[in-house]
Write a structure and sequence with these properties.
With 357 residues, the protein is an alpha/beta fold. It contains 13 helices and 14 strands. It is globular, with a radius of gyration of 20 Å. Bound molecules: nicotinamide-adenine-dinucleotide (NAD).
Length: 357
């Protein structure tokens, strides 16, 4: 029996995971999502038609609701994507990040523990909880080196700090209670269905329209980019083969500065449709404008995913340039989805320069 409970399955990575899993990897999938601004109605509506799929609109802080869903659907596997996920928003409103990412994860772990303890021995042995986290918990790297599973936690943003706290809680539930929890730490994802406040979709939409392209500071911050489908496949491998209590870092071996990513988007769009202004063709890269840097902006992330490769046989399959072009295709053809995503009130404005209150 493969009955999965996924939290945050109406967001970017969660919805890609749900779409690829239902009917292929699991017989039933229950998506517990609070449906915050980051969960687009168009995504939710599209998922509703999947066979064996059910949505429970709830906050992961609602332990009793979670426990009821676990029991009712006889869940065998839990994957936790639910989170407040945007660093800029965490600078403005850290409280929401503590509530969902820390208290919510703890409530979810607690519901899983109560449920797991009720299971017959054989089912309890098979039960797994996968907590999805980020490489941002490790802080910032210098020019050399890469994060591994043994890198020390040094979170620098309220987002990263809240994720680090939730990771510690996941670890503690394994070591203290024996709950079969695994934790993943992935690098920056890109692909379809990402809310257009994050770098890649935001820049695609602005550059396509010919708007100014805000570059935080010098734009030389380095991120390791991974296509969301590669991330989904890594999580599947962990569900299939990782040991309870294990942790894996996941990365694309694809370091790019933010400036390089924006330049790649501009050059792709220029080839599709040159931008005309007053009878002149303008290179979209000229729309880049340096703006005040993000407070506490991490300089460089990189991942050494050799443990995942050696122990579980996972490697990224998608090239950044191809994946980026496909992502651009998707955003240019997803006008309805974009309108629904922006219907919640976010229209590309700068967030997170400082705390508002
Ligand atoms: N996006 C990335 O590049 C990236 C990289 C590594 C790890 N991660 C992690 O992956 C997970 C998913 O990230 P994402 O980019 O898809 O995020 P997202 O913001 O696109 O989606 C988050 C989802 O969680 C839901 N949610 C938020 N608060 C909730 C709550 N209290 N209860 C229930 N549901 C709630 C939202 O409605 C939304 O559907 C997060 O845990 C994030 O930390 C993301």
């Amino acid at each position: 029996m493969t009955h999965w409970l996924v939290t945050g399955g109406a967001g970017f990575i969660g919805s890609n995971f749900v779409r690829a899993s239902v009917g292929h990897r699991c017989q039933r999938l229950v998506n517990v999502d609070k449906l915050t601004y980051a969960a687009c109605t168009a995504t939710v509506d599209e998922l509703a038609g999947l066979p064996g799929y059910a949505l429970v609109q709830a906050d992961i802080q609602q332990r009793d609701v979670l426990l009821q869903s676990l029991r009712e659907h006889q869940i065998t596997t839990v994957v936790n994507f639910a989170a407040e996920s945007h660093v800029d928003r965490s600078i403005e409103e850290p409280d929401a990040f503590v509530r969902t990412n820390v208290l919510g994860t703890q409530a979810l772990l607690d519901a899983c523990l109560a449920y797991w303890r009720e299971l017959p021995e054989e089912q309890a042995k098979q039960f797994r909880v996968l907590h999805v986290s980020t490489d941002e918990v490790y802080g910032s790297l210098g020019a050399e080196g890469a994060f591994t599973e043994t890198s020390p936690f040094q979170p620098n943003s309220p987002y990263a700090a809240s994720k680090a706290a939730s990771d510690h809680m996941a670890r503690a539930y394994f070591h203290t209670y024996g709950l079969p929890v695994m934790v993943s730490h992935c690098s920056n994802n890109y692909g379809p269905y990402q809310f257009p406040e994050k770098l890649i979709p935001l820049m695609i939409l602005k550059a396509w329209r010919g708007d100014a392209l805000p570059i935080y500071g010098d734009g030389l911050q380095v991120r390791d980019w991974l296509h969301v489908d590669d991330h989904v496949e890594a999580l599947w491998r962990m569900l299939e083969a990782a040991q309870p209590g294990s942790e894996y870092v996941i990365g694309g071996n694809c370091e790019r500065t933010n400036r390089q990513v924006v330049e790649a988007i501009c050059s792709d769009l220029d080839q599709r449709s040159p931008l005309q202004r007053d009878g002149q063709t303008i290179a979209r890269a000229d729309l880049m404008q340096r703006v005040t840097d993000r407070p506490g902006h991490d300089r460089r992330y990189a991942i050494d995913a050799s443990r995942l490769r050696d122990e579980l046989g996972w490697q990224p399959q998608r090239q950044f340039e191809t994946g980026l072009a496909q992502t651009i295709d998707w955003y240019l053809s997803a006008q309805e989805w974009i309108a629904a995503a922006q219907g919640g009130g976010y229209a590309g404005q700068r967030l997170g320069v400082e705390r508002s209150a």
